[in-house]
Specification:
With 414 residues, the protein is α/β, with parallel strands linked by helices. It folds into three domains: 111 residues, 3-Layer(aba) Sandwich (Rossmann fold); 227 residues, pyruvate-formate lyase- activating enzyme (Alpha-Beta Horseshoe), CATH 3.80.30.20; 54 residues, OB fold (Dihydrolipoamide Acetyltransferase, E2P) (Beta Barrel), CATH 2.40.50.140. Helix content is 35%, strand content 24%. The chain is built from 13 helices and 17 strands. The longest helix is centred in the C-terminal third of the chain and has 24 residues. The structure holds iron/sulfur cluster. Iron/sulfur cluster binds next to α6.
């Protein structure tokens, strides 16, 4: 039996694509292996968001060349998109697919291998991911994504509904909706295919567990969308917002076209409407020209805000983006500022989880090993439970008993 593995770098959209390919390849006869060093086919979904991402991809490809030289290597994604010609000529690469060929990728592989047999599907992950939108129509001055993913494109509502029904039937209790710019969902389609109508239609799907939304752009988080995501019985109370910065000057130079005051209103409204929601943010430190004052504005804003955690990225020069030509902040300064923000994020996350101790929360078992389980609550807290007799992907009620440092413990309530 021909085996395959998938190495997905970068964002949730890449993960959602990998999730769908694993499903399709298995349902046509290939055997999924989580170990790339021993699979016959290694499918690599690459990322080029930062120079670190580029390095990780190159490192992985070299390692495959050493540890699994006989493997058929298939490349796709944003890094290979930038170097298509080179990879097409590279004898160590069996196939390269552009980003706009991803939809047919598994079928073209199957056709090359002549596969038609049915086999049992081994879950690729405990939560299902669906890419509902791709590309982006914005041009933030630091971002390379529009150059490698193209304009915003939405999946037809009917196709998404069908996928959600299928994954619900397959036993997935949580489905993550992803997009390069999720809030742009429907803006490229004639009919009123907005995120709001999509979520409202999903509420009627029988047996549906819960829906988690990936990153949301605050510029699109209008009152109507905020009302729906905070009151819908299916949407997880976990909102991850792409803030990027908290200094007016930096936001202007990033091309974000939003004011810090707007952020404050949106975050306060989400907190007021959903008291126990996890509120997360993407933040960039060390953006060209970021002064000590800009950085202190950012720290001051997030410290006072109801945010419960943030993902901190150090600015990375991306070829062809405007900001790459501007005066850069020193690497040491970037590192120091990132460390300070990450420490603040841990503190806020610790306070948030401490506030949940004693409460009972709805959760899903996302990992199970020798009688110990990791449960993800609807508001995005990872809880360790031992002993645990329930199985992976099962929906449970978990009582949080303790939260110290980064670890939160609990017990399952029948
Ligand atoms: S909104 Fe800006 S940061 Fe986000 S993908 Fe588009 S260009 Fe990049």
């Amino acid at each position: 039996m021909t085996s395959f593995s998938i190495q997905s770098f970068g964002c949730r959209v890449n993960q959602a694509e990998a999730f769908e390919w694993a499903d399709t390849l298995q349902s046509h006869g290939l055997v999924y292996r989580s170990d790339s060093w021993r699979s016959d086919i290694v499918l690599v979904n690459t990322c080029t968001l930062t120079s670190r991402a580029d390095r990780d991809v190159r490192h992985f490809l070299n390692k495959i060349g050493r540890k699994n030289p006989e493997a058929r290597v298939i490349l796709t994604g944003c890094y290979s998109e930038r170097f298509l010609d080179d990879f097409q000529k590279n004898p160590r690469v069996w196939q390269v697919f552009r980003n706009d060929e991803k939809e047919n990728l598994p079928y073209r592989i199957l056709a090359e291998l002549g596969f038609r047999a049915e086999t049992a599907i081994k879950p690729f992950r405990s939560r299902a991911l669906i890419k509902i939108q791709d590309g982006c129509d914005f041009r933030c001055s630091f971002c390379i994504i529009p150059a490698v993913r193209g304009k915003s494109v939405s999946l037809p509502e009917e196709k998404i509904m069908e996928q959600v029904r299928n994954y619900t039937k397959q036993g997935y209790r949580e489905i993550v909706l992803t997009g390069i710019h999720l809030c742009s969902y429907g803006t490229d389609r004639p009919e009123e295919d907005s995120l709001v109508s999509l979520l409202q239609r999903m509420e009627k799907i029988e047996g549906l567990g819960r829906i988690r939304l990936s990153s949301l752009d605050p510029r699109f988080l209008n009152r109507k969308l905020r009302d729906v995501i905070t009151h819908s019985p299916i949407v997880c109370p976990h909102f991850h917002i792409s803030l990027q910065h908290g200094s007016e000057d930096i936001l202007r130079r990033m091309g974000r076209k939003i004011k810090v005051e707007d952020y404050r209103l949106i975050l306060d409204d989400l907190r007021q409407k959903s008291p126990y929601a996890a509120l997360g943010a993407d933040l960039i430190v060390g953006f060209p020209g970021e002064t000590e004052n800009d950085f202190e504005s950012l720290v001051g804003f997030v410290e006072k805000s109801p945010l419960t955690y943030f993902h901190v990225f150090t600015y990375s020069q991306r070829p062809g983006t405007p900001a790459a030509r501007w005066k850069q902040v020193g690497e040491r300064t970037k590192k120091e500022r990132a460390a300070r923000l990450r420490e603040l994020s841990e503190r806020k996350s610790g306070q948030f989880r401490k506030g949940m101790v004693g409460g009972v929360w709805e959760g899903i078992i996302i990992k199970k090993k020798e009688g110990t389980a990791q449960i993800l609550t609807s508001n995005y807290v990872s809880v360790h439970v031992s002993p645990c007799v329930a199985v992976e992907r099962e929906r449970v009620q978990v009582k949080i008993t303790q939260s110290e440092g980064i670890k939160t413990r609990g017990q399952i309530i029948d």
